[in-house]
Amino acid sequence: MKTRRLVVLAMLVAGTVSAQTLTVGNTYSNPNSSDGNLGAVRTDVELTHPANATGTLDTATFYWSSSGCSAAAKVKVFRRVGDNFTLVAERGPFNINANLMTVTLSPAIPVLQGDLIGLARVANCGNPGAVSPGYDAYYVQVAGDATSFTYSASVVQGNRLQVYATGTATEVVAGVIPSVASNQGRGGAYFRTLVQVLAPFSSSPVSGKFVFRKKGTPGGPADASMPFSVAGGSVESWTDLLNSMGTTGNPGSIDVVLPWGASTPLVGAQVYNDQGNGTTGFREELIPTINHSFAVGTNIFFSGATGYMFGPADANTYRANIAVRSLEAGVEATLRAYHADGTAAGSGQSLRYPPNTWNQDSWAVMTGVALEDGAYVRISVSRGSAIFQVSIVDNITNDPADVVARVLGAVI
Fold it and tell me: Which pLDDT value is given to residue 80?
C-alpha cells in the first residue's frame, strides 16, 4: 500500500546529480606497454570504469602504438550480465593516423549504466596502448573480433587499457538501499520493507524508478522495476515495497534511479519483522552512489579499502548474517574473521561477485569459520567496489539490527 502526506520542515537541503558528461573507460595517460599478443585479431574490454550513467556515447579516445594502420581498430561497447558479455554496438574499423586517436561514434551508441568500452585489433598493424602496472585497473582479452564471451580468470589482464568514451547522460543510479525484504524468515518471522521518499520543497516533482536486485542473481536490464513520482514538499510511502513491485519471496537490494541532473530526494527505509502484534526491525538510509569519494569513512568499499564489522557479543543469543552488494564493476574481496582477543580465526574467505549482485548468508558461510562470542570480521577489497552489511538477529524475538560497514583504511 502507498500513502501520501504533506510534511512541514524549517529547512531541507537535498543533493543534486551533478551535470557532468557520461563517461566510460580510462582517461588518457602516457602508455608504457601494449595489450597482450593473443592473436592478430583480438578484443580487449576495460572492466574497472563502466559507464557512469545511461545515455549515448558519441566520442572515443584511445592510444595505438603505430600510426599509418588502415582499418585497424574498432571501438566496441559490451553489456555484462553476471559473467556473460554481449556486444551492444561497434563503430569502425578506423584508420589509424596518429598514436592518440579521437574518433566520432556515428551514429551515437546507446548505453546503459554499467556498460563497458573496448577495442578490437582487426588488422595486423599496431596495438592498443596500456599502462603497466595497472594498479586497480584491469581488462579482459579474448581472441577474434568478439561479439560475446564469458568472463574467466584466464582472460584477465592486469594492465590499464587506454580507451575512453564520452557522451550525453539521461539517467543515473543515485543511490542504493543496501538490503530489502518481503519474505518468510526463521522462527515464524516475516520481513517487509517500508520505503519513504521526500521531495524538497524547492524542487519540482521528483520522478524516478526503483530497481530490485534479487538475492544471488546478477543484476541486468530485465530486473524488476517500478516508477515513482513525488510532488515537491510531500512524502510517498510504500509499506511493503517489494509487494508493490510484485517481487516478494526473496530479499535483495534496491537501486534508486533518477533522470540525469534531477535533485536527489531524501530516501529512508525500514526493514521490519511483521509479527501481527507489533514490529521489530531497523532503519536504513540511501547510500549515494554518485559524487561519492573513494576515501576513508565512505560506505562504499573500493580497490585497496579495508574495514571491520562486529559480530554479536553473545553468539548463543544472537545469530549474524553478512550481506554484500556489488556495484557496476563487480567486486573481489576477502572476509577474514578474528577472535575477540584479536587472533585470526581461519585463513579468510575469498569472494567474487559480478556487477550489481546482492548476496547474504550466515557468518559461517561468508567467513569460513563458526560464529563465536565477540568475533569480528576484516573486509579487504582487491578489485571493484561494494557495500558490506552485517545483520545481528535475536534468536528468540527475531529482531534484526543491521550496520553498514565503513572504510577505515585504504591503500591507493
Answer: 98
